[in-house]
Amino acid sequence: MSQTAAPTNRPALPLEIARRRTFAIISHPDAGKTTLTEKFLLFGGAIQMAGQVRAKGEARRTRSDFMQMEKDRGISVSASAMSFDFKGAGNTFRFNLVDTPGHSDFSEDTYRTLTAVDAAVMVIDGAKGVESQTQKLFEVCRLRDLPILTFCNKMDRESRDTFEIIDEIQENLAIDVTPASWPIGVGRDFLGCYDLLHDRLELMDRADRNRVAETVRIAGLDDPKMEQHVPPALLEKLREEVEMARELLPPLDPARVLEGTMTPIWFGSAINSFGVKELMEGIGAYAPEPQPQSAEPRQIAPEEETVAGFVFKVQANMDPKHRDRVAFVRLASGHFERGMKLTHVRAKKQLAVTNPVLFLAADRELAEEAWAGDIIGIPNHGQLRIGDTLTEGEAIRVTGIPSFAPELLQTARAGDPMKAKHLEKALMQFAEEGAAKVFKPAIGSGFVVGVVGQLQFEVLASRIELEYGLPVRLEPSQFKSARWVAGPKDKVEAFAAANKQHIAHDNDGDLVYLTRLQWDIDRIERDHPEIRLTATKEMM
Ligand code: G4P
Fold first, then answer.
1. Which of 173, 225, 212 is nearest to 45 (CA)?
2. Where is GTP bound in this sequence (predicted)?
3. pTM of the predicted model as reported, rounded to 2 decimal places
């Protein structure tokens, strides 16, 4: 089978851009995302020993998690990026791995992260199959037709039958699955995999977890060399299964992988470093190069000479000693060099990017240059918000980065009433970061804070205390839902004036209708056909 991605009718990219692969890993908690990330970095030469990323016994997390909160809770709250090179067959790829928060409460953040990548690696646990969070994240990828590569992990433990796993993915996720490798034996008897793409045998080394598997080149399954490595019973089963797989399952079609309708699956064991290299080679071969970015009034192509990029995430207080914020920018086109002056399209201002950061594995480094596909961090004092576009002058605006109406609302008051102004400032900062929605009601004092999942309230309260030294009281709100109000200006103004007790403004100053009941929303839509109450708004 061919080892190159499908030809497209787009122009060839400059080599520096063409070698970039920007992707995220999606998985259910515990499937092995952190372990796989460590091994990626290890094989990418970014770290010497996997243990540097996660000290044994310590709470599970890679160094990509920066904040105290995450350390305390052992969850990955924020998404961040890691860049590293990988020498694949015939090419050295630059991988940009964008980390997604694993907890379901942070789905909005995850959604936006997925707007910054060109592909996703889906990790599933071989014993558990497709779990709830995998399914949810997959649906998000599908909304964007993202190409997906699958890694079935933990094959060193008792796992399900290979056909059963493949069937489950096909049925639950409605995507065709094509095996890139086939496992030999399970659990204690797991020997390794037969590489269906290259006709080779990959044997797992149980003694050294950081060693790459031994590769045995063979001429197909009937090669007598197989018998030297695989016991007769396992070999017979392997031959039968591969024959059946080749009959029943579709062959790898790179074009369909790029469309997002087919996923190749590799089997392995991240903790034993097994199957990881093959997966990385697969990312190089089948995940797409940096893709064009939807924008208005025109699309941005990665090969354009001028630089354009957009903010998909803002993280405040990454270093508690310095009140800095970092805007994570995905470069959509061009060749960026440190010191460049870029136009902040929304603010119509110039921004000199003097100290951009590249996230190289465990460390942040100054980015001297970056190319389309890369993620850079731009420290700033609040000028850059999620959804902002940076260009070399052209008034172009990246589209498709949504903001979702929160599903849970609470009121926020300062523990010390003298500190109300300080609280407002802190809340606004978190709102800009995308950590919560903050609504200022037209009547009364205090704020209504909205989030997608309960855990976000806790995160918010502890961050306000930790980062601003402000005790905050979050209490149940009389409101249960929020909707943005859209429509002709005069109608919207009249509607707002007549419904003052329900009206608030979000942190961008946009009008919001707060309500207790869903039927209230239905009633308004019926009684005021010119008014639209929307659950999403595009960040701009
Ligand atoms: P996550 O980020 O997706 O939540 O998963 P993580 O990598 O932290 O892995 C979850 C658990 O699964 C960890 O065990 C990890 O060591 C284990 N694991 C990962 N890959 C494999 C594998 O290929 N085979 C086996 N058998 N286990 C694997 P833990 O006991 O929860 O943590 P730890 O004490 O090992 O750090």
1. 212
2. 27-34, 99-103, 153-156
3. 0.83
